[in-house]
Design a protein that fits this description.
Strand order of the largest sheet: 2-1-3-5
Strand content: 5-15%
Radius of gyration: 37 Å
Number of strands: 9
Order of helices and strands: HHHEHEHEEHEHHHEHEEEH
Structural class: alpha/beta
Number of helices: 11
Shape: globular
Distance between the termini: 123 Å
Oligomer: single chain
Bound molecules: 2-acetamido-2-deoxy-beta-D-glucopyranose
Largest sheet: 4 strands, mixed
Amino acid sequence: MRHSQKSKGGEDEENGLAKLLSSLFIFVFGFLIGLSVYSNFNFNQYHVPKPSSIVPKPIHFVSNCNRDTSTLEDFIKPEKLLHGMKDKELFWRASVVPKMDEFPFERVPKVAFMFLTKGPLHLGPIWEKFFKGHEDLFSIYVHAPPGYRLNVSEDSVFYGRQIPSGEVSWGSITLLDAEKRLLANALLDFQNERFVLISESCIPVFNFQMVYNYLMNSGHSFVDSFDENTPQGRGRYSRHMFPDIRLYQWRKGSQWFEASRKLAVSVVGETRYYEIFKKFCLPSCYPDEHYIPTYVNMFFGEVNANRSVTWVDWSRGGPHPATYGGSDITAGFIRAIRDNGTFCMYNSNPTSVCFLFARKFAPSALQPLLNLSSTVMEF
Ligand SMILES: *[C@@H]1O[C@H](CO)[C@@H](O)[C@H](O)[C@H]1NC(C)=O
Ligand SMILES: *[C@@H]1O[C@H](CO)[C@@H](O)[C@H](O)[C@H]1NC(C)=O
Ligand SMILES: *[C@@H]1O[C@H](CO)[C@@H](O)[C@H](O)[C@H]1NC(C)=O
Ligand SMILES: *[C@@H]1O[C@H](CO)[C@@H](O)[C@H](O)[C@H]1NC(C)=O
């Protein structure tokens, strides 16, 4: 049978293979024993006990090239104000809040002065005088038109304080974007605790120590926020904002706000109401006069003083407040801004000190103001 023949031939082959394998096994076994005797011999030779001093210390191949040299300092206080972050990235980064209540460094709370300017800071010298000697207690941020370079000397408090900016057109959402950009850049410094928006036509009417204490000790933010049943108030509400924003929640207020860190983080990190304003607060609505006042009323009403600390004169009427020039500046005028006998609330107590800053002042007001600063404003 073809099948059995093949089977017999297979048996012969298997016997031959078994012999070959067994002799191969003996050879390999013998070789391994020889090898192990040889290596044991070597092993013993190399492992005779030696004085421990001669045993080389282990070397760790860690060089400075491998080590990340960034420190906590880089994270809590960026050295340079110019960065490559887009608004969306910046706002996300700025809204990151530590979970721990305590800081692993000595934190001296600072006031962030955020200058929103269309060009030169004509009143800069009065601010320089105001800030002098308080370098550890404030930081400055300047939002100027893109491409504009503030012409200040290296010893100026404004030197190197411009942030990456964007185009701003009056009355549009871009004004709010600039405010958010200032807040976000200022939030990157973890020492900043209070945030005040300043224009190029603003001046301080008290000295730095007074302003610092007033803001740091306040349990409230100073965001002007009021309900006004006029075409310029409730009249600017859009029914398309319903139901996210209801008419009774709608507020109006001066753009020149002062905010706590907590409120600043919230405004920068908030997108839901911002998007509604972007879509429905269109020309003749003015997002800068309604978004923050309305948002604060909805979520931070209890911690808002509902008034601004920046004095402004709307008594002349029209779309813009009064501007004061050189001939308007007298000691009596500035004293009346500091205290005109009218009371406002501060930490639930009445006070006659309601305004820390004032606007609007023309460049011609600078010299007379500098002349008055030491006697009237006490700086
Ligand atoms: C910058 O300011 C200095 C001193 O006030 C002035 O001399 C210079 O012309 C200014 N430069 C520009 C580009 O405006
Ligand atoms: C500010 O207005 C809110 C309502 O939005 C109110 O709850 C709060 O008590 C007011 N703040 C002060 C200091 O009166
Ligand atoms: C004091 O200032 C407030 C707020 O600007 C104003 O409403 C009031 O009329 C002023 N009072 C006097 C007496 O000037
Ligand atoms: C500064 O004040 C002095 C005296 O108080 C006055 O004579 C001088 O004209 C003032 N200068 C300006 C620029 O207002």
